[in-house]
Protein 1
Amino acid sequence: MSALDAPPRSATGAWSGIAGLAAMIATVIALRSWQQPDYIRTLAVLAVVALAMVVVDLQVYRVQHNASSGLSAAPQRPSDIRRILYKLAGLWLTVGVVAAIYWLLPVYSDSFYDPFKQAALYGLPALVLLSPVYIAFVDRLQRQPEDAYAQLGRLVAGNRPRDWSMLAAHGRGWIIKGFFLPLMFIYTNNDLAALWARSPLVSIDNFEHFFSFGIDFLYLVDVLFATVAYTLTLRLTDSHLRSAEPTVSGWVVCLFCYPPFWSSVGAKYLAFDQDDAYWGHFLGSYPLIYGLWGSIILALVLVYTWATVSFGLRFSNLTNRGIITNGPYRWVKHPAYLCKNISWWMISMPFLSTQGWTVAVQSCLLLASVNALYWLRAVTEGRHLAADPAYREYQDFITRRGLWARIRRGLPWVERVA
């Protein structure tokens, strides 16, 4: 393979995600009969997956030595107790503000979020014990130790920063973490509980059962990896926040796709599955087509999940935590969005309505509107990430060597039409 054919260096490699996936499968099997509340079993699975990926990133890829980590290989200075205390104050003030927002907003009093609150309280002692050790260790390695936590601690002590941009980025990053982490944890907890409640034997001779298990498992992998990544925004693993989406439009199109915004607005006004007649309803009488159609759906969701796994510890909406160029990102800039949106057409089949052609046309237009929403997400994300030279290099690679570029070179008439 020539240098021109190879994608730019990825922020992490494939083995990080593979290790996390292997650890997940082994732990889920091992804890199936463990007599503990689901949130504790979920925490255990998340902890093992996180540990597996951290070990691979530190020992195999040596991400702590990346220039983007801001860390040196050896301590730069003796421990500065005052700065460490400022950072601890900044961290706990941040956590306290997020906890206060959870208490203030009525949506978080819903029983839906109870497992997250129980898990957070269960894990709080570990955070109390580990945070001083981690902060003191990383502080000695940081080339620029006056980070956002130090600035926030100094602000509490009465020292106003000259430049507020670092604190603004810190605030945006924690809003993103605070919004998505509870959702991803709840989805993971519920999906794991459903998986443990299933029969341990998967019926491979019944495609309907196999499809149901397969798609549920793939979506579980997606949210579980997202939960780990939202939790571990650490400089030591080079998975810290580089930047957060700076525009209101970027935030709006992203958050609209998640509860409570989607469930209260999007699901009502963009309900493309009005008749609740999905692909199985239309194809159930044709076993061969049913199996082929379902297999394509599974393949699409597999690529979607593969995209999340490829991020390792770095998955996050609305942020840049390192540019990923391996996995499906080697061929397409937004493989998750592309496959997810195609799968919705195949699952809902809005063009075949049980309520007549007018509802079919209506449903197709509504699903196309959802597709347009994800196109806007891709546009705003690309605009944000383009501030990073590594992403611009990746964009250039996709333009030259991506899937669409290869198709155009292989089909001359496509090149002429384009």
Protein 2
Amino acid sequence: MGDCEEEEVGKNGHFLADDYAAESMAADMDPWLIFDGRKTPRAEFEDWLETNRPSRVLRYGDPERSMEAVGWIAVYGPNFCPDAGFVTELQEDWERLQASGRHVTFDTIKELALNHKVVSGKWLMHLDTGFKVDHAWRGIATLVVDGRIGVAKVSPCMPNSDRKHVICVYNEDFTVEEQVMDVDAAIRSAGIKCSISYKPDVYTYLGIYRNNRWRLCPTIYESKYDLECIPRRSRIINKISNSEVS
């Protein structure tokens, strides 16, 4: 529960969540490597995947080889239809809410998200660079091009850093629990057994990261693969109610 209860402040005097938000925004603004299954033939996917392995793509590029910085590596499914909702209006209402001094809870954020139709979310997994991330990304990306998931992305490599890669696997509506669970099941079907957590996109747009000033846990579900259960399955905890999802 440390991420939910502690507030840490970095050397610059800001909450660490502010630093995470700034890093995320910078990655979003840099060029992405994208395989678009709506336009590109499926036959080209394997070559693209091999050329753009996360462990080989550098976050800040390689000047010696005239390679630019890369924010994300992403795959869009054949039926992917992006709809971010009304993000600007969401953020404006968020600023007004903070100025009002009203106490912020998960229900407060959920209400804002529904009002502005910003209801997408993603399962997150953090993996070491090398074989682990490349293997997991191959499984996830294949689910996307086969139409079982709409979209996914993975962060590139950061050499000389202890940062892990993050893979984000999206669904359309974080308020529909069955939909969120279906995406978890798809991820597990790709052989992913590590712990994963779920974050609504509204949290990202509002800068709600680990160690945030509102003391909100930055994820709302946690999934652990139960190797002892027969049949094997995920054990998923709703972190808002602190109860297991049946």
Protein 3
Amino acid sequence: MFEAISRQGTHSMKWDEAKKKFGTNDLLPLWVADMDLASPACVQEAMVKRASHPLYGYTVYPDAYYASIQNWMQERFSWEIEKEWIIPCYGVVPSLNFIISAYTKEGDGILIQTPIYPPFVSSVKHQKRRVLDNRLVYENGRYHIDFEDFGRKAKEAKLFLLCSPHNPTGRVWSEEELGKIIEICIENDVLIISDEIHADIVYEKTHHSIGSFEKIMHYCVVLNAPSKTFNVAGLNTSYAIIPDTRLRQAYSVEQDRSGITNGNPFGIEALMSAYREGAPWLEQLKEHLRSNISYVNGFLKTHQLPIKAVPTESTFLMWLDCRGMGLSHAQLVDFFLHQAKLGLNDGQSFGKAGEGFMRLNVGTSKEVLSEAMQRLLNAYKEAC
């Protein structure tokens, strides 16, 4: 069912831009966080149906769009939200920028946790705010939060940009951890902005949306999209959930100023069809991804490679601890690129905390992943 489909020649960033990014076209690209797997049939059918109508003009967001999000949040996360809390957006990263502009001023401190998805840092720096890094602690093969440091830095912060589940480490924050975060942020008058774009792909743990905690409801913004879940990132359709009227109005003003307010007719249809009919497909996808993750872990162990995968609690992204290879970070990147011929995400792009790590996208077929692991093994044997 889940076979990798060739994306070459489709203007795919992951495949067609690989040479531009890595400087070579002989590698297997396993970097950008989208999948090589087809979107569910319900989404494909919705796209074809919409495309059959020959006009693609300005499009509004229908009531069914909002209802789809409300139902999805209720069914998947037991979070009952109101229609007026939902603001359609172009994408999570643009929304991060609008939020920083709307809720802070130049020089304000913004709290993040590295290693982190790169736009968290770049969005702060581009708008001349201060990055306050509560670096995650990696101990005994698992990441956790240094709450003592978090509390100190929260005293200087206006916003906390939370990644939940966390990219790239794959951590699913527990109810207790989120509760501690909330207490500290309330105590220091810090707004929580939660990127929950990976919330649907969680394995043994349970995702708790920060907005579902009553204490923080009026001091948070939740950003989400069907893009990672259903492989529709190119349709640029996301949304913000903002329960508080004041925060919602401030965000809306900033987004409206950008001029990015029109709906994407295909993105709207994709979201509605995915959230209405895509749940069974999603469960099958998670089984496929779980199998891929297990395969990589088993391969590394069986062949005694000095690489350890951080436990992947969520996402289709594996965070590989390669420090056992005994290479400098520059040598590590060179090894993957020029010897293994694999295009992974450089761990240092997620901050200094990512030194010695690489991010592997397993959102592909078992055949592609098998080829990738064999390339890795062959390169390691040659290097030894």
